[in-house]
Design a protein that fits this description.
Bound molecules: inosinic acid
Largest sheet: 6 strands, mixed
Number of strands: 9
Helix content: 10-25%
Number of helices: 4
Structural class: alpha/beta
Oligomer: single chain
Radius of gyration: 16 Å
Distance between the termini: 15 Å
Shape: globular
Strand content: 25-35%
Order of helices and strands: EHEHEEEHEEEEH
Strand order of the largest sheet: 4-3-2-5-6-7
Length: 182
């Protein structure tokens, strides 16, 4: 375990097995549809990478970069589009792939934007859900794990851009928030 991690919340093995389960459900639900996975950068990268390999129906992969958190541990509620989709998604069935839903503000805006682009349907798969943090009403269609309102890192999730490469989801030691070097 990394020296800055206090405890592992979800192990690599648990994540992999959940990806397999979600992949099977999504493959069944999207049979015969024009599936486009839209990964939200950068946090969804490990998840979309493992999940897409477990989906057996034809799919396209797109990425968007929107920011809501600015290097801290609380949501600002501000959303900025840094990178938009490359492809036209009109008439396609979009499945947004997200690392974690906390306040729901990010996804609320992204869903509205993708509907405006003419998607046939827009659904959400999230690795983690923190329902206690919600500021807007929003329910993911597929959830990997529901977790308590705790700041987590690893498997795509960062603290000041670090820890995304950890193969598990863990809780940081308190002293890491107070020191400058990671
Ligand atoms: P929301 O708009 O509050 O739902 O925030 C969603 C985004 O905030 C996620 O895509 C993450 O980038 C970030 N975020 C929320 N909770 C955490 C956390 O516990 N650790 C790391 N990033 C988080």
């Amino acid at each position: 375990m990394h020296q800055d991690i206090k405890k592992i919340l979800i192990s690599e093995r648990e994540i992999q097995s959940r990806c397999e389960e979600l992949g099977a459900i999504i493959s069944r639900d999207y049979a015969g549809k024009k599936l486009v996975l839209v990964g939200l950068l950068k946090g969804s990268v490990p998840f979309i990478s493992d999940l897409c390999k477990r989906i057996t129906v034809p799919l396209q992969m797109e990425f968007m970069d929107v920011s809501s958190y600015h290097g801290g541990t609380a949501s600002t509620g501000q959303i900025k589009v840094n990178k938009d989709l490359d492809a036209d998604i009109a008439g396609h069935d979009v499945l947004i792939v997200e690392d974690i839903i906390d306040t729901g503000l990010t996804l609320h805006t992204v869903i509205r934007m993708l509907k405006l682009k003419g998607a046939n349907s827009v659904k959400v798969v999230t690795l983690l859900d923190k329902p206690e943090g919600r500021l807007v009403e929003l329910q993911a269609d597929y959830i990997g794990f529901t977790i308590p309102k705790e700041f987590v890192v690893g498997y795509g999730l960062d603290y000041q851009q670090y820890y995304r490469n950890l193969p598990y989801v863990g809780v940081l030691k308190e002293e890491v928030y107070t020191s400058k070097e990671v």
